[in-house]
């Protein structure tokens, strides 16, 4: 798998710069085009002309990393809608960790919530300095087709990274066997491609904190907490999971695994749309809304 187009969002903060650097490193690794956008929950008045600054930043990134970088025009449309419009043809959307602070207002539909809910492509939330390629990717899996697609995608993001497939307890024996078969199929695929890399399978009982937690709370198995504990134990610098999308009411009443995971880890998080066809449709609908609003504005 190769990424062809990457879209990254920035508000020019230090954490947003980390995201731009990570997006640029991935663009170099995949020989991809990088499109960058300006957008913020609250616009900083010190940026009198953010578009001019964005174009300057695009030139800097292009010179430093020798990749094609385009500064997309924000216009007068809402940030989330513009980003979804740009992401409709992208292979990856890169967001910065500063948006995670908006989790406190998740129920009000902040930028991060909207993009995770509707992005037509996988979303990478960058939480740490981009000092090089990823070293250890922790992938949350079950035996579903979405999990198989996630493993291939996350594993190809940085070809040299070790891959750890993590599954939760209480899985039906047949499903657990399906996860093991998926691991073997992935190893066989890498072997056919002539790629040597570390690939292993782990479960919730590998980490002592998880074993103790399960013993005390067998009836309340918090999937996000288990995954966060495994990330701390393994030292993974990227956690990847497939997101089962729900309506906004479901997010308000029950929250989401992605939200809880972002609150529990400090590493980067990759969110892969579980319902890719529906995600594409939502992206196309967002594109139509942007086009209509831009037409009315002219």
Main pleated sheet = 10 strands, mixed
The backbone outline, from C-alpha atoms, is globular
Give the helix level as a range of percent. 40-55%
Percentage of residues in strands: 15-25%
The CATH topology annotation of the largest domain reads as Rossmann fold
- At the fourth level of CATH, the homologous superfamily of the largest domain is HUPs
Please trace the helix and strand order, writing H or E for each element.
EHEHEHEHEEHEHEHHEHHEH
The order of strands across the largest sheet is: 3-2-1-4-5-10-9-6-7-8
Q: Could you tell me the number of beta strands?
A: 10
Number of helices: 11
Low-confidence stretches: 208-221, 277-291, 293-298
Just name the CATH architecture of the largest domain. 3-Layer(aba) Sandwich
Level-1 CATH class name of the largest domain: Alpha Beta
- Alpha-beta content class: alpha/beta
Total domain units? 2
Radius of gyration: 19 Å
What is the typical, i.e. mean, pLDDT?
78
The end-to-end span amounts to 40 Å
Any overview of this molecule?
There is one protein chain. With 298 residues, this protein is of the alpha/beta class. The chain has 2 domains: 5-128 and 278-297, HUPs (Rossmann fold); 136-236, Rossmann fold. Helix content is 47%, strand content 17%. It is built from 11 helices and 10 strands. The chain has helices spanning 14-30, 50-65, 79-87, 111-118, 145-157, 173-192, 208-216, 223-234, 248-254, 257-264, 276-297, and strands spanning 5-10, 33-38, 69-71, 92-96, 123-126, 136-140, 162-167, 199-203, 238-243, 268-273. It has a 10-stranded mixed sheet, sandwiched between helices. Helix 8 (223-234) runs parallel beside helix 10. The longest helix has 22 residues, at 276-297. Mean pLDDT is 78; it is low at 208-221, 277-291 and 293-298.
């Amino acid at each position: 798998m190769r990424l062809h187009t990457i879209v990254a969002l920035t508000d020019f903060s230090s954490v947003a710069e980390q995201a731009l650097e990570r997006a640029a490193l991935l663009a170099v690794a995949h020989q991809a085009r990088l499109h960058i956008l300006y957008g913020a929950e609250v616009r900083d008045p010190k940026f009198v002309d953010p578009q001019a600054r964005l174009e300057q930043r695009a030139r800097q990134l292009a010179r430093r990393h020798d990749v094609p970088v385009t500064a997309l025009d924000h216009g007068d449309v809402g940030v989330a809608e513009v980003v979804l419009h740009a992401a409709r043809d992208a292979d990856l959307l890169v967001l910065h960790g500063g948006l995670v602070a908006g989790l406190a207002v998740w129920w009000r539909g902040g930028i991060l919530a909207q993009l995770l809910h509707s992005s037509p492509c996988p979303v990478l939330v960058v939480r740490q300095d981009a000092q090089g390629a990823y070293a250890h990717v922790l992938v949350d899996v079950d035996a579903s087709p979405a999990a198989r697609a996630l493993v291939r995608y996350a594993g190809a993001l940085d070809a040299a990274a070790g891959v750890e497939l993590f599954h939760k307890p209480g899985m039906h024996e047949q499903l657990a066997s399906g996860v093991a078969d998926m691991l073997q199929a992935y190893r066989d695929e890498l072997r056919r491609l002539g790629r040597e890399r570390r690939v292993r399978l782990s479960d919730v009982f590998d980490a002592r904190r998880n074993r103790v937690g399960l013993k005390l709370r067998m009836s309340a198995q918090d999937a996000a907490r288990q995954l966060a504990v495994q990330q701390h134990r393994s030292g993974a610098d990227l956690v990847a999971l497939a997101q089962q999308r729900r309506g906004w009411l479901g997010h308000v009443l029950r929250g989401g695994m992605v939200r809880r995971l972002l609150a529990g880890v400090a590493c980067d998080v990759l969110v892969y749309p579980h319902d890719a066809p529906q995600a594409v449709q939502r992206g196309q609908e967002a594109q139509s809304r942007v086009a209509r609003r831009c037409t009315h504005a002219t």
